[in-house]
Amino acid sequence: MSIQQNHTNITLTSLNKMRAQGEKIVCLTVYDACYAGIVSEAGVEVLLVGDSLGMVLQGHDSTLPVTMNDMVYHMRCVNRGNRGALLMADLPFMSYASESQTLENAASLMRAGAHIVKLEGGAWIANTTRLLSERGIPVCAHMGLTPQSVNRIGGFIVQGRDTSQAQSILKEARLLQDAGASILLLECVPRVLARQITDSLEIPVIGIGAGPYTSGQIMVLHDVLGISPITPKFVKNFLRDSEDSIPGAIKKYVQAVKNQTFPAPEHCFD
């Protein structure tokens, strides 16, 4: 399969069409204008301005210190460099604790260029999801391993391995879809569970450490380039075999997701 550049703007309608046709959706985190241009030109459909910037850019050991000012700044940078990809932005830790706070912060990200906001949680974010979607702000619900809750869940560990937790995640995923979520992101869950959730929903499901059966894949840019300080099981360094430096590595990542050679079994959890 050849890699196509984004000559037209990617929208939620585009992603739903890809899901319906069985074409994998490619997503990647980006934090500045230069990389936004490189990544979108390489055919990545969704650019996430992630609060992961707290770890890969700011040097923190979690995403918790990231502020709204940080997110808005980086969203503006990425928006300037983007070449047609859909732009997603994280609502950072404790930025959606109340109704008024949620609306104000989500609106700030949308004004900075975001097309959809992402927030972490299960059933408890259903009302927030409904609130945003009813007011024209699309939502990506982030389930499974939720880094903003790392202290509560006891570290960066796989979620949904026991039957009761798996059933809870499945039930809450359906609830969030019904509340108006446009996309679901699943992080660090067993591939069988990810497949069950993907098959049971009507919205695109994007995975990271969630196996090959989701509607698409997302990775942290620094992981794709092999320069992150840590290397989780689900990560692959695409720069190592690139013949065209960084742009080539991004294209290899796109090709691997589209051809369904990534993630391979060694990148998945059972």
Summarize the structure.
This protein is an alpha/beta fold and 270 residues long. Helix content is 40%, strand content 14%.
> What's the total helix number?
11
Global outline:
globular
Tell me the strand percentage band.
5-15%
The count of DSSP E runs of length 2 or more, i.e. the number of strands, is 8
Largest sheet: 8 strands, parallel, barrel
Q: What's the end-to-end separation, in Å?
A: 29 Å
**Helical fraction:** 25-40%
Mean pLDDT level: 94
- Radius of gyration (Å): 17 Å
Q: Strand order of the main beta sheet, please?
A: 1-2-3-4-5-6-7-8
Query: What letter string, H or E per element, gives the SSE order?
Result: HEHEHHEHEHEHHEHEEHH
Low-confidence stretches: 1-6
Structural class comes to alpha/beta
Note down, in words, how this protein is organized.
- The chain is α/β, with parallel strands linked by helices.
- Helix content is 40%, strand content 14%.
- Strands 1-2-3-4-5-6-7-8 form an eight-stranded parallel beta barrel, surrounded by eight helices.
- Helix 2 links the parallel strand 1 and strand 2.
- The longest helix is centred in the middle third of the chain and has 16 residues.
- The protein is globular, with a radius of gyration of 17 Å.
Which tags fit this structure?
270 residues; alpha/beta; 8-stranded parallel barrel; 40% helix; disordered N terminus
Secondary-structure topology with pairs:
Layout: H1 12-21, E1 25-29, H2 33-41, E2 46-49, H3 53-56, H4 68-81, E3 86-90, H5 99-111, E4 116-120, H6 126-134, E5 139-144, H7 150-153, H8 163-178, E6 183-187, H9 191-200, E7 205-208, E8 216-219, H10 221-224, H11 245-258
Helix pairs in contact: 2-4, 8-9
